[in-house]
Structure prediction request, 149 residues.
Amino acid sequence: CAINTALAVARYGLFLMMNYEAIFFVIYDNIKGLKKWEIFTAYDDVVGVPQYMTSFGIVFISIVYLESSTLSLMSKVAPVRLRQYSIDTVFIVVVVSAFGRLAGDMLVSTLDLSSWIFCSDIINSLSFLLVIAFCAGSYFVKKHFFFLI
Prediction:
């Protein structure tokens, strides 16, 4: 299934995007009991910028593909209970995509605020949560759209 493949590629891109140096120093500082209010762990010297740009490209292309394929799937495949109402599935797709964008904006804003308060890297926090969301999406596709696999 192309949706599962795109979800897996996006997960691999997010694992590539993570700043492992920042993760190491957060764990190290927690073990030592230190609380730093400034983080100096930018992406690794030479590898950091190409790592971030490559992983960003992989994740962006995967998410663009996922958005178009899931929206077209949602507009064509409607549950039996929904077919008895006069609501058009295309209208539901527009409403769901708007709420999805709103939820994504709130997620990024919340993580930005929490990374400022807890002094952690926003990219790592966002990557961890998106990996969890993509795993849940893969489970949802396998569970409810098994006929696509």
